[in-house]
């Protein structure tokens, strides 16, 4: 089969559709070449070779070597230079490129093909001796670092010494002779470190670099990144070999990166950075401070250095045209790398640009309004999980803030936590429950785990496209980058800003939307849910079939849920209402009472409070369904712990403390999750459910009489395993409801149903539906009972299970479709067979997980219920599932 795909010079063996085979970079290089954009010629070695590389002893087989030679010949023919030709050498870059861009992969090697002979040819043909030797030393440094594993610090040190010896500060102060001498020194460093010479044969260099790209697929860094991002290990990477173009050939040469729209706000304005007389990674590496692409951005930032629009107006004009072509062609915002060689523009990369949630939303809505994409596409383009960033609080603009530093607004949102200065500490402290802000001079792929653990990221160096900025936006972490006034002392574990010192553990706040860094904690405010957010949500609502409800029991949560668009309550957990400081005494008295009479006396005191709770919820949820779950947890969860608490119950009940203690001991269970809980409480102590039911109906009747829309209570019985259990409790509920209707002379509509959270209930759903008017799948317990895994104890092994691929994802986060999902599917079918109009929903944690929501859509449930903050996520995910 074919492993090498050419591009450039009028040829494109692949295209944008070949990302799996060619990786993102390779597929888009071929695509750009095919639509006539200026792309230096090259070829891509496919991801299939990556697999073969590992299968065949980590080497490149001979047949593929031949194909690669053909690829080199293609480049030679287009460029008119020969690889290894001492008079006029072709130089290439070797670039990795997986399906998705992936930190942890081998860094690019530029200027490959240089040696002591070809460097002379490069000097002669370019007419620039200094450029040739500068390119050569860059090549040795990059190649030795990424291919041969020599610590790059050694080269930097040698460069510093060279500058010191000459008494200069800048790289640009070194001349051809200085670079030539450094090349000699660099080669010595390689020999000293490795005991072998730097490879001089361009072909050896090429095989080394290609092998290193494939080899980096299994590097620890790459593996960590794949694990954090759910990227399968068998995808493999492609390798791109491409003719070099030079941005370091003087004042009419440059290199840069750009976005076709602002990746932070989504605004329709080109955004980018560039450097004159520089090569490749200089822009992102933070060696020199990059300049703005557009004049408007430069003026806004108050920067002096000329923008590309001003310094190179003609090429800038061409670039702007390329932006338009690419956006129209890809119908999405693009993230672009380009180089200008002596006034000629070359495109080196394009991909759909990573963006903040805010930008994703704005770009999607704008593009739909511009007619570039449809509304359906707009809805599909926004990652529901990313909405989370928009729903969470931002800093209160009115709150006082002590700004101690300012950097770039690299990734929006507010973050507050203790400053830490290395990734390992960030991870350790976060595991211990601390909120941390990771502070670094700049970040690299080795810091990913710490960035993940941190609330936010602060760097002293680096632009909007630096590693920290790009990764933070992808992760949804607020980030301030390039805070210039900051000096970080890793050894002392502190940073200095002017005369001020911030030590490890001191609390700081970041505003990733303004770039401000503040001392201490700054209060936050709720986001506004209008504008682009409102527009996209309205489109999504029109496209979805599933209803979205919320899990909520406090009035505050119910209000939040409604603001976020909940269409009812799918789970109101009544036990949460029992922990209130005033009520807990009565709850304890009820539990510890030795007989029914004692329990009833205590329940009578609880009734008015429960009634008020429900009335408040019904008012907020006027006209919408409210599913109320009767008491579920084991009673001992409410028991007193301290001496004083026992004494209080003794006083209130008139019972002796010893009696109460003995009763408390009676209630202890060895496996409470499978013990005396759920409807088993209602069967054994019917008076508890009777009181709750009475409170529900008295409240409902009262609120219905207030003139607003009548509430629709759905009384839900937990942990049912058999039809008989539900029949007994349903009779009790109906009796109580009728009693209330008779007493008040008013009647309201209501439903009685059950949770399906035990495998037996799912299996016997057909007969349970004789009694149940609705099923609500309690997927937390259903997952525990189906897998035989206790959620509270799963932490010890679940991570390893996911690592080993036993579970694709944590089954408590995303429904185990094959197991738990099978039970849900079956219960839904059997329930519907008995009662076609039965209402079906889910109320576990999974109700806010997009993949689980897609599953619920596929089984045809009526609604999903999620925590209030996840309601918008669920609305969008439900629309995507329906499309
Ligand atoms: P990454 O995925 O880390 O961005 P790239 O392969 O895109 O790595 O390359 C890193 C840098 O080198 C980029 O700035 C890119 O534009 C530049 N570069 C890559 N290949 C060439 C080339 N053939 N000529 C000039 N610059 C190149
Ligand atoms: Mg790189
Ligand atoms: Mg790149």
UniProtKB/TrEMBL annotation:
EC number: 2.7.9.1
Annotated catalytic residues: 467 (tele-phosphohistidine intermediate), 843 (proton donor)
Swiss-Prot/TrEMBL catalytic activity: pyruvate + phosphate + ATP = phosphoenolpyruvate + AMP + diphosphate + H(+)
Alphabetized Gene3D superfamilies for the sequence: 1.20.80.30, ATP-grasp fold, A domain, ATP-grasp fold, B domain, Phosphoenolpyruvate-binding domains, Phosphohistidine domain, Pyruvate Phosphate Dikinase, domain 2
Superkingdom: Bacteria
Keywords, ordered alphabetically: ATP-binding, Kinase, Magnesium, Metal-binding, Nucleotide-binding, Pyruvate, Transferase
Pfam families: PEP-utilizers (PF00391), PEP-utilizers_C (PF02896), PPDK_N (PF01326)
Domain PEP-utilising enzyme C-terminal: 530-881
Top-level EC class as recorded in UniProt: transferase
InterPro entries assigned: ATP_grasp_subdomain_1, PEP-util_enz_mobile_dom, PEP_util_AS, PEP_util_C, PEP_util_CS, Phosphohistidine_dom_sf, PPDK_AMP/ATP-bd, Pyruvate_phosphate_dikinase
Residue ranges annotated for the Pyruvate phosphate dikinase AMP/ATP-binding domain, each copy included: 60-303, 317-369
Positions with a binding annotation for substrate: 573, 629, 757, 778-781
Classification via SUPFAM superfamilies: Glutathione synthetase ATP-binding domain-like, Phosphoenolpyruvate/pyruvate domain, Phosphohistidine domain
Protein name: Pyruvate, phosphate dikinase
Organism in which the protein naturally occurs: Allosphingosinicella ginsenosidimutans
Taxonomic lineage: Bacteria, Pseudomonadati, Pseudomonadota, Alphaproteobacteria, Sphingomonadales
């Amino acid at each position: 089969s074919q492993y090498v795909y050419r591009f450039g010079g009028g040829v494109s063996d692949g295209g944008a559709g070949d990302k799996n085979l060619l990786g993102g970079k390779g597929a888009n290089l071929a695509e750009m070449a095919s639509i006539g954009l200026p792309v230096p010629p090259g070829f891509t070695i496919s991801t299939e070779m990556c697999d073969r590389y590992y299968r065949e002893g980590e080497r490149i087989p001979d047949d593929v070597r031949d194909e690669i030679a053909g690829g080199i010949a293609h480049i030679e023919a287009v460029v008119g230079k020969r690889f290894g030709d001492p008079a006029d050498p072709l130089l290439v870059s070797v670039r990795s490129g997986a399906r998705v861009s992936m930190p942890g992969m081998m860094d690019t090697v530029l200027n490959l093909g240089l040696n002591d002979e070809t460097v002379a040819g490069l000097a002669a043909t370019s007419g620039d001796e200094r450029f040739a030797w500068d390119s050569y030393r860059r090549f040795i440094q990059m190649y030795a670092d990424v291919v041969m594993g020599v610590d790059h610090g050694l080269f930097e040190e040698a460069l510093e010494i060279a500058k010191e010896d000459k008494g200069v500060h800048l790289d640009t102060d070194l001349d051809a002779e200085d670079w030539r001498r450094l090349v000699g020194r660099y080669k010595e460093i390689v020999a000293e470190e490795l005991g072998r010479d730097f490879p001089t044969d361009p072909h050896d260099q090429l095989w080394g670099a290609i092998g290193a790209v494939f080899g980096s697929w299994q590097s620890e860094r790459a593996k960590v990144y794949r694990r954090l991002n759910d990227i399968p290990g068998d995808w493999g990477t492609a390798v791109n070999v491409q003719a070099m173009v030079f941005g370091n050939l003087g004042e009419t040469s440059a290199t840069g990166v750009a976005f076709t729209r602002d990746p932070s706000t989504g605004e329709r304005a080109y955004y980018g950075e560039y450097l004159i007389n520089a090569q490749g990674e200089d822009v992102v590496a933070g060696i020199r401070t990059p300049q703005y692409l557009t004049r408007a951005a430069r003026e806004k930032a108050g920067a002096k250095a000329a923008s590309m629009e001003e310094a190179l107006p003609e090429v800038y004009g061409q670039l702007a045209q390329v932006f338009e072509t690419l956006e129209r062609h890809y119908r999405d915002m693009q993230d672009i790398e380009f180089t200008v060689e002596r006034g000629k523009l070359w495109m080196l990369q394009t991909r759909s640009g990573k963006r903040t949630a805010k930008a994703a939303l704005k770009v999607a809505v704008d593009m739909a309004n511009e007619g570039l994409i449809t509304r359906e596409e707009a809805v599909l383009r926004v990652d529901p999980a990313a909405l989370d960033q928009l729903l969470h609080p931002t800093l209160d603009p009115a709150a006082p803030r002590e700004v101690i530093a300012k950097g770039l607004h690299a990734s929006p949102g507010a973050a507050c936590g203790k400053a830490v200065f290395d990734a390992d500490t960030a991870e350790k402290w976060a595991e211990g429950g601390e909120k941390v802000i990771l502070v670094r001079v700049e970040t690299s792929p080795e810091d990913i785990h710490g960035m993940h653990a941190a609330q936010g990221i602060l760097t002293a160096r680096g632009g909007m496209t630096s590693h920290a900025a790009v990764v933070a936006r992808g992760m949804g972490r607020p980030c301030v980058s390039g805070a210039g006034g900051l000096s970080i002392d890793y050894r002392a574990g502190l940073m200095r800003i002017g005369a001020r010192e911030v030590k490890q553990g001191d609390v700081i706040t970041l505003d990733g939307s303004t770039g401000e860094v503040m001392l201490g904690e700054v209060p936050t405010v709720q986001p506004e849910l209008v504008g682009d957010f409102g527009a996209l949500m309205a489109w999504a609502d029109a496209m979805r079939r599933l209803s979205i409800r919320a899990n909520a029991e406090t009035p505050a949560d119910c209000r939040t849920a409604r603001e976020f668009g909940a269409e009812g309550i799918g789970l109101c957990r009544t036990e949460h209402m029992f922990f209130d400081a005033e009520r807990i005494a009565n709850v304890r008295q009820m539990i510890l009472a030795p007989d029914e009479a004692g329990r009833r006396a205590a329940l009578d005191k609880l009734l008015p409070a429960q009634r008020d709770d429900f009335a408040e919820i019904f008012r907020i949820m006027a006209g919408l369904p409210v599913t109320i779950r009767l008491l579920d947890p084991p009673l001992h969860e409410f028991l007193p712990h301290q001496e004083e608490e026992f004494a209080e119950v003794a006083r209130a009940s008139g019972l002796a403390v010893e009696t109460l203690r003995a009763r408390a001991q009676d209630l202890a269970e060895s496996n409470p999750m499978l013990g005396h809980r759920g409807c088993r409480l209602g069967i054994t102590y019917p008076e508890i459910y009777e009181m709750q039911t009475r409170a529900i109906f008295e409240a409902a009747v009262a609120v219905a009489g207030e003139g607003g829309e009548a509430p629709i209570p759905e009384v839900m019985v937990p942990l049912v395993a058999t039809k008989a259990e539900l029949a007994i409790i349903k009779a009790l509920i109906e009796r109580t409801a009728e009693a209330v209707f008779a007493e008040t002379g008013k009647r309201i509509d209501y439903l009685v149903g059950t949770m399906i959270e035990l495998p037996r209930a799912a299996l016997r759903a057909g007969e349970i539906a004789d009694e149940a008017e609705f099923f609500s799948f309690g997927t937390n317990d259903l997952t525990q009972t189906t897998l035989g895994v206790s959620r509270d104890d799963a932490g010890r092994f679940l991570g390893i299970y996911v690592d080993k691929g036993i579970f694709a994802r944590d089954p408590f986060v995303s429904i185990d479709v094959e197991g738990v999902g099978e039970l849900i599917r079956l219960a839904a079918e059997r329930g519907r067979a008995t009662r076609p109009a039965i209402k079906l929903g889910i109320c576990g944690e999974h109700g806010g997980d997009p993949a689980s929501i897609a599953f619920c859509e596929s089984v045809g449930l009526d609604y999903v219920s999620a925590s209030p903050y996840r309601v918008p996520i669920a609305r969008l995910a439900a629309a995507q599932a329906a499309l």
